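Work Package 4 report. The design task specified in the project plan requires that, given a folded chain encoded as structure tokens, an amino acid be chosen for each position. We show below one input record used in the internal validation round.
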């Protein structure tokens, strides 16, 4: 049914209003990072700084070893993305494209693991990593990603199932092994879903605070989330600098989503080729 001009106009007004509503906290974050201390605590609130103090960003990164924390965070994020995409796609391929005894039962068990909150397994998992001698290393933050993730396995399985089986049959006739089919056929056709998994994993690792707080004791191995908490404890009264540091930490995620939004939207809809 075709919508009238008034309905379309009202829909756009509602969407713009919602967009401004969700944009407001980010605007306040950025504007506060450019204010002086007097403007931060001024009443009524100052929405537009009289003078943009870009030096707040330089002062913020000088208070903590921002470059070191950024490097540590990027190492953990990149390894986590690689591990999650590789392991989850392999398991999802076996659950979606290969017939083997007990496959469906194991998939149900996999789904059941998604119902366990992280707080339930936190202590036993920490005990395992302590026994392995991995405390105060990045291994507990990276290695689990190479063992697959229930949610991402489920997500990729659903995507793989939309790819016609005839393509795999044709590849087998041409002499391709299951590994060749996975590597040369399924992965190229699943780029939107894989990009979505990578984006979710990157954001989760980038914003993770509990994991580094639990496993990292050496300040030289700290991530940006720990560095931001350290900034709060040492310079909590300097709100403009705190907001500047928070803006710098938030900006990469916004840029990644901005440039990858088309692929992200394609992947999240879980649509593949239709036979």
């Amino acid at each position: 049914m075709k919508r009238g001009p008034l309905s379309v106009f009202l829909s756009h007004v509602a969407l713009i209003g919602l967009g401004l509503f969700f944009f407001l906290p980010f605007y306040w974050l950025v504007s506060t990072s450019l204010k002086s201390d007097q403007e931060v605590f001024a009443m009524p609130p100052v929405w537009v700084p009289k003078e943009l103090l870009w030096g707040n960003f330089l002062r913020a990164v000088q208070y903590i070893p921002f470059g070191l924390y950024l490097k540590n965070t990027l190492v953990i994020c990149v390894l986590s993305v690689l591990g999650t995409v590789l392991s989850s796609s392999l398991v999802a391929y076996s659950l979606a494209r290969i017939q083997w005894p007990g496959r469906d039962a194991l998939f149900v068990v996999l789904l059941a693991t998604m119902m366990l909150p992280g707080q339930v397994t936190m202590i036993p998992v920490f005990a395992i990593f302590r026994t392995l001698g991995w405390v105060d290393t990045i291994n507990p933050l990276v290695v689990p990603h190479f063992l697959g993730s229930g949610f991402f396995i489920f997500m990729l399985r659903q995507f793989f199932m939309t790819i016609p089986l005839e393509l795999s049959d044709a590849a087998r006739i041409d002499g391709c092994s299951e590994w060749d089919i996975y590597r040369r056929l399924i992965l190229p056709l699943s780029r939107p879903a894989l990009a979505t998994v990578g984006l979710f994993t990157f954001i989760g690792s980038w914003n993770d605070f509990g994991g580094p707080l639990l496993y990292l004791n050496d300040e030289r191995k700290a991530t940006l989330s720990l560095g931001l908490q350290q900034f709060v404890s040492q310079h909590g009264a300097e709100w403009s600098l705190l907001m500047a540091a928070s803006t710098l930490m938030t900006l990469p995620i916004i840029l990644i989503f901005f440039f990858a939004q088309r692929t992200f939207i394609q992947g999240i809809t879980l649509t593949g080729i239709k036979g």
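DSSP finds 14 helices and no strands in the chain. Validation will be extended to a larger panel in the next phase.
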